[in-house]
Write a structure and sequence with these properties.
about 325 residues, Aspartate Aminotransferase, domain 2, 2 domains, eight-stranded mixed β-sheet, 10 helices, 13 strands, about 15% strand
């Protein structure tokens, strides 16, 4: 079985993680907001940030969940991209609000239709780089969203967990009075199972509410995992660049090969996914699994039933082997669709 499904890096975490020394002081309860050592280290990664503007969470998922609940207004609209990460609509409903959607065109925000919806929304979620689209929103578009969100007093939740996996430019950090940035150690440092994410917000009221809710739900995030996250930040920046080059090499290969196969897809600018179009995508996912031993994810899970998500978080030889199977499928079963 070859899996193009995994949303986690196949690369090893930084060696610095393994220098954490166990001892009795590692096991008591920790601060609900997160260990000050880690918050201080993360704050240095953001311009003009302070440790008290961060909350350490159980992955980015908890950060998104708590932030939505902190800003909740029953029945209010929250704008989500289509395609979206499959948990977003559920997170919005759990918070007592209503998902509304803005469509991406080949992974990009169409600013005019987006702004028409923005004026009637309570909050908007931006995911750049995107899972599953692999797209990175243009800086000028993001700046325009900043300006208009501030004008309409709309909360902006910016999911940036792939910010260190952008191939074309540096990440642009959204700013504003009600901008809430979500990030995680899962993708950059291959620490998915350790569940260390965080919220960064200069909205003091939102940070306060998130801490209050967390004190009655998960309480503190695993303190040993937080210590390992602190060590990860001590890894040389060259490690991230080296890994980015590897992701880019894989991206270039899978994209070029799929184009040669005649598939319709755009070139991803970040993250580690491609999102090609297929006739009867649900059937494609099933037949690739049962007949060709390939795992992929149905685009319907992400709000686009016309596409299939392929992750390239696997080594290049397995990518080649898997794509050979996809080609065989296209030349045989798919011809009858």
């Amino acid at each position: 079985m070859i899996s193009f499904g995994s949303g986690q890096p196949d690369l090893p975490p930084p060696a610095e993680l393994f220098s954490v020394r166990l001892g009795p002081r590692k096991f008591p309860y920790g601060l609900i907001q997160g260990e000050e050592k880690l918050r201080t280290a993360i704050a240095k990664e953001y311009p003009n940030a302070k440790p008290e503007q961060f909350v350490i969470t159980n992955g980015a998922s908890e950060a998104i969940d708590l932030t939505l609940r902190a800003i909740s207004r029953p029945g209010a609209r929250v704008l989500l991209p289509v395609p979206y990460y499959y948990s977003y609509p559920h997170n919005v409903r759990f918070a007592g609000m209503v998902p509304d959607y803005y469509k991406l065109r080949r992974g990009k925000i169409e600013i005019e239709s987006f702004l028409n919806k923005l004026s009637r929304a309570h909050a908007v979620l931006i995911n750049s780089p995107s899972n599953p689209a692999g797209s990175v929103q243009d800086v000028e578009v993001l700046k325009h969203i900043e300006k208009m969100a501030a004008k309409y007093n709309v909360h902006v939740i910016s999911d940036e967990i792939y910010k260190d996996l952008i191939y074309e430019r540096e990440n642009y950090l959204l700013k504003g009075p009600h901008v809430h940035t979500i990030n995680s150690f899962s993708k950059t440092f291959a620490m998915c199972g350790l569940r260390v994410g965080y919220l960064f917000s200069k909205d003091e009221e939102v940070v306060k509410k998130v801490i209050e809710m967390k004190s009655h739900t998960a309480m503190n995030t695993n303190v040993l995992a937080q210590e390992m996250a602190s060590k990860a930040l001590q890894a040389p920046k060259s490690l991230i660049e080296k890994q980015r080059n590897l992701w880019r090499e894989r991206r270039d290969f899978i994209y070029a090969t799929m184009l040669e196969m005649g598939l319709d897809l755009w070139k991803p600018e970040g993250a580690f996914y491609v999102f090609p179009k297929f006739k009867d995508a649900n059937r494609v996912v099933s037949e690739l699994f049962h007949k060709y031993k390939i795992i992929t994810y149905d685009g319907a899970w992400f709000g686009d039933p016309t596409r299939v998500r392929f992750s390239y978080a696997l080594d290049i030889e397995r990518i080649k082997k898997g794509l050979d199977r996809v080609k065989a499928f296209l030349n045989k079963e798919y011809r009858s669709y």
